[in-house]
Amino acid sequence: MTLSCSPRCCARRAARRCLCERDCATACDMAGEMTARTSIELLRPVQPCPSPKSSSTLDLSSLFESVKLSDLVLQTKTGELPAHKLVLSVKSNVFAKMFSHQFVENTENKIALPHLDGALVRELLRFIYTNKVENLPEFAPDLLPLADQYELGELKQMCYAELHPALTVDTAVAALIVADTHHVPAAKRAAIRFIRRNYMEVRKTEDWKQLKDFPKLMAELNFADLSDEE
User: Fold this and answer.
1) Verdict on whether the full-model pTM lies above 0.85
2) What gap in Å lies between CA 30 and CA 214, rounded to an integer?
3) Could you give the domains of the chain?
4) Rounded CA separation 179/191 (Å)
């Protein structure tokens, strides 16, 4: 027996079928739009998030030679230079100790350097504030002792490298004496190795005679530990 539905019942079924098809079409359109939008977003370049500025890269050049917030004066034979105790202390352990105790430099806020030219002290401060030195070839000979005095290792290396860029038979003894006098240990070891390897040539130079005034260095040349030589 075949069941038949009334016209009203068929109309309701048809309406439900249309609604279902419309909903499916709408869902498909939405899914397609979302897929397209996602593809576009994936194709866009990702902008990196800005990273906070590292404290080690802070530029202190604006404070160099500035009276602003300065709490210290360096008195040279040609004039006075303003400075900041905190900046000097961060760079140099010598200054840090000086300003941590009741030394006259700390209590009077002055460092007396009457034997030094202002231009030289200015370059010392320039390095402390900016890690740079202007006219290093001119100032290196006099800056090296100051770098040693205030324990500025990087400045010592810069000055030594300027004075002795390469070891030769004629310069090895002078380089050794400078490295020993101003405590540049890596350079000193290199000079000792070079002299030991080239002893016959180096001992014929004029500088070799200077080593008579450095018995400790003579002993190190004779008995230095060269186990790391190739």
Assistant:
1) no
2) 89
3) 61-152 (3.30.710.10), 164-230 (1.25.40.420)
4) 8
